[in-house]
Write a structure and sequence with these properties.
By secondary structure, the chain is mainly beta. It has one helix at about 65-75; strands at about 5, 10-15, 20-30, 35-40, 45-50, 60. The protein has one domain (about 5-75). A six-stranded antiparallel beta sheet has the order 1-2-3-4-5-6. The N and C termini lie far apart (about 25 Å).
Length: about 80
């Protein structure tokens, strides 16, 4: 599994793979100047928003990377 597309303009690119499956993704397709990563932390998926000059923390508690991506897409 290298890329996942949730049928929106956002795509996931695998950054790290655990024993069996990816657990950290970069989100591709956000507006210029914005970025995000998704990671499975303590058994749930979380979002880290990235924007120059701002600090963000891991947020959310999603059952899957696709659910986290869908939430992020609704904000974009």
């Amino acid at each position: 599994m290298n890329e996942v597309d949730n049928s929106s303009m956002l795509t996931l690119r695998t950054l790290e793979i655990g024993e069996r499956e990816p657990y950290r993704f970069e989100v591709i397709g956000l507006p210029t100047g914005r970025g995000a990563m998704l990671a499975r932390l303590s058994g749930v998926w979380k979002i880290l928003k990235i924007e120059r000059g701002k600090s963000y923390a891991w947020t959310g508690s999603f059952v899957s990377a696709d659910a986290a991506l869908t939430s992020l897409a609704s904000e974009a």
